[in-house]
What does this fold into?
Amino acid sequence: MKRVVFVRDKTNKHSIRALLAAYEKWFPEKDYYVLAPQDAFEFLKEDDLALFSFLTGTSSAYIDYVTKLKEKLPKINTVCGGAHPSARSEDMLEYFDGVCTGEGEESIKDIIEMAHSGRVEGIITGKKVLNLDEYRVFPRKMVSLGPIEIVRGCPSGCAYCQTPQLFRGRLRHRSIDFIVEEIKFALSRKGFADVRFIAPDASSYQYNKGINLEAIEGLLYNVRSTIGTKGKLFYGTFPSELDPSGVSKELVDLLVKYCDNKQIVLGLQSASYYMQKIMHRRSGLAETEKAIELLLNKNFEIVIDLIFGLPYETEETYEETYKFIEKWKGRVTIHSHPFDPLPGSRWQYEKSTEVPAKLVKAVKSLEGIGRVFGRVIKDKEKVCRI
It folds into this structure.
């Protein structure tokens, strides 16, 4: 093996950053390279180790990329990981020499050691449960800052989502002390101003059979005390939305007291009670509308995530979502997503349903007042580029 090259694009920058921090833990004296796909294509040579991480949306692009790369460099050693390879490991072995499944922070050690002794080949299974405090958020050798992952796993079991199947409901949390130390490091680097978090549900931090307000306040208080006026603190907005079931007057008061964001993202997905039930959502329409009222009373801008074309939708279930949009239009913003069956999710083999024209029209009518973004119908021609 000559060199270790991490291929990073705008869609995988968070996962690559976590791998870089882990690489530095295991191999503090060894160098590495981080390059954009096109730059890496020109830079890589025979016997280099090229590392990839990707989601389902970019899987086709990376398959095409590595196929062309191997035509150019037959001896290149390629290894992939991430949500899509974890769910489709055997399929990915047709294109990549090695496939890492599950969490990669420990597997990166095995991969590099295998590469040094020869080549990485086959499936490398990640350790099932990691202690997140054992792995830094930010690598030290290069500037790679961004949102801080505070929760891994999710207490929900939504049928359309990969996370419950990847982590089987086991939640891991970074401790407040560890998070603060990473923020102090980031503050010492030029360009770090805003503190944002990565979590499937921000209200699940230190979740223990329910929302843990004491832990959330401890986190927000300590982060705010650390950054002072040097930066801004964001919670409950991208990339860590809130499940409506976790929104209470007490939580909203904490957001007002400690945070800078004026926007909150709530996951609803469908306004139908039946669809909420079969999706295994923790919260439904009643909890969402209560959360909306609480947040509007404190002048938050609210974004509601809705998925269109879900399996098992009927005229009746779509009508409930239509009525929700009509009720709240002009007061909330809709982030629309077309259903896309994700490998590893419980609905990975399900087909989408046709969205009624009336509902499509209702969503599109919000464009004129700036209250909708995203897509309702999946664009079959759209290619996610890397």
